[in-house]
Amino acid sequence: MTSVRDRDETGRQERELPVRPSDEDPVAAAGSEFLGGPTGRWARSGGYRWWNPVRVMVLVVIGMFALGMAQKAPCYSGGWFKGGSPQYIHACYSDIPHLYSQRGFATDLVPYFDRIPDSVSGSGFHYLEYPVLTGLFMEVASWLTPHGGSLQHRAQIYWIVNSAMLMICAAVLVVCVARMQRRRPWDGLLIALSPALALTATINWDLFAVALTAVGMLLWSRSRPLAAGVLIGLATAAKLYPVLLLLALFLLCLRAGKLRAFGAALGGAVASWLIVNGPVILGARAGWTEFYSFSRTRGVDYGSVWLIIMQRSGNPLSGVSAYVAALMLLLCAGIAALALYAPRRPRFAQLAFLLVAALIVSNKVYSPQYVLWLLPLAVLARPRWRDLLIWQGAEVLYFLGIWMQLAYVTGGTKHHGLSADGYHLAIAVHLLGTLYLCGMVVRDILLPEHDVLRQGGDDDPAGGVLDGAEDVFFLGTVHHEPRHAAPFAGPRVEWGTALPQAPKADPES
Fold this sequence. Notes:
Pfam family, one: GT87
Subcellular location: Cell membrane
Membrane topology: Multi-pass membrane protein
Region (Disordered): 1-30
InterPro entries: GT87, UCP010361
Shape: globular
Order of helices and strands: HHHHHHHHHHHHHHHHHHHHHHHHH
Number of helices: 25
């Protein structure tokens, strides 16, 4: 006969097991049939031991990354170096081999300090037009690239070296997302199996900033605001968008009365950004400003809603920077109102996702690799396979659309590829896919009972000091305090380890 104590203990242990997608997501359950069906009893009991979720997903993301590299094979074999449309027709374009020579890495120019000759740049840039930490990443890769052989061969090796470094970033990203989700480590599989990650990871260096941002969010989730701020500052030194996470933290900390934690994060971010940028500002100010002046003066470019407006109306939109700033401020104001008026405080990932999505929707350019900015935030904000597949499908269509448009405009009289009308449709699909996912996240914020994480009793697994905190500043009229459910009352169980056995029943019970 089993005692009540035994049943309670066994039930608690079952609740502490990691949530598996095939158990609670119908799309994941249907997809699991391809691999033999949902998780069985042996895995549920902890029998997989060494094959825990994190190790499995790291191997999966390495495999997907390798497939993405294989997709670039037509360009690696010569498409990058022939110019014109071949690299676009095969959808295998990458900035990395081109900038190896065009930004002076092949001739050992020091980024920001050495002026790039016009004969080398070919694009009007006098210095490297990337943030400082990304420039350091590019320079380290050039140090690891052998300088013997032809320029084409060295550019190929440079791409391979960068790809290896970016593969490490992809593995770090998956590990961070898995560790942030507490009982939902398998949500990292949404990143590991992402087609957008495979297709865009080696186009540019954005994945480096994305990985730094994920480490910062993981540190915040572990209630280490100063260390989190340091990583967010480093990520901002590699790409500007992570600074929006500080705005999300400010709004959430204001509502929860945790402004001291926000101050620590802000201080860490400012300090780390200055440490990285300070030497370059002092020693090579002209080179340091190249990125910021280019971002400010850049006109309407591929992928933006402004391109559709400009080409459809014939208006050159000479003041587009002002329009972009106004739209972004309007969207941020709306997101701030949502954060402060929502019946329950939004989760950190939800607010961060909406702010970065606002930047992407309002920006005057959208390169296909920008999808990586949103990928971990989308998985943390809305870990539902159906919605993420819809969004990713739209992004894959845009990925193909932009290369076919470039093939069309660079193919001379052949006109292989996609005309302007077709490309406008691809942009619209990308925008609608992003807005659809934003709508689902907003619905989860306004109706917390629809949030899959909160259905399981969580408040904010990535929230750190915000997790479970009561609100002290609230502007709405209907207010629901955070709840703490039973699954987290007991000790944490490490993923991939066997659960302790329940005590045997007392013979007298």
